[in-house]
Amino acid sequence: MAKRVVIVEDEPNIIEAINFILSRDGWDVTVHANGETAVDAVRAVRPDAILLDVMLPGRSGYDILKELRADPDFAALPVLMLTARGQKKDREMADALGVTRFMTKPFSNAELLAVLGEITAGA
């Protein structure tokens, strides 16, 4: 059975590229572009992993991550946070909130697949 991933991202070009890469690799992909309703989308899909953008309309990726980590059902869910802002403070905030991995845009297709494979290896 294919592993499920939710991509929480609002940039259409990035959504299209990641969706293509992951679908081609056998992932069952759900895309969600609204920060306000992202947690509900994750709860509905119950994915094996989340790709979470930091800057989203309505709510930041940090706020979404914080809410997911506070929920026992999603406290251990692998979350790969994606951002165009890769400063040390951004990484530190993500780490403090319990991110599984942090990746700066742009990234290579191979890197994305490798990291997603690593964080879901036990799923």
Polypeptide structure, described:
With 123 residues, the protein is of the alpha/beta class. The protein is 42% helix and 20% strand. It has a single domain, classed as 3-Layer(aba) Sandwich (Rossmann fold), CATH 3.40.50. The chain is built from five helices and five strands, in the order βαβαβαβαβα. The model has no long low-confidence stretch (mean pLDDT 94).
Chain-wise SSE layout:
Elements: E1 4-8, H1 12-24, E2 28-32, H2 38-45, E3 49-53, H3 61-70, E4 79-83, H4 88-97, E5 101-104, H5 109-119
Parallel strand pairs: 1-2, 1-3, 3-4, 4-5
Helix proportion range:
40-55%
Oligomer: single chain
Name the overall outline.
Answer: globular
- Strand percentage lies at 15-25%
Structural class: alpha/beta
Question: Number of helix segments?
Answer: 5
The CATH architecture can be given as: 3-Layer(aba) Sandwich
Question: Any descriptors?
Answer:
globular, Rossmann fold, alpha/beta, 5 strands, 5-stranded parallel sheet
Provide a concise account of the structure shown.
The chain is α/β, with parallel strands linked by helices and 123 residues long.
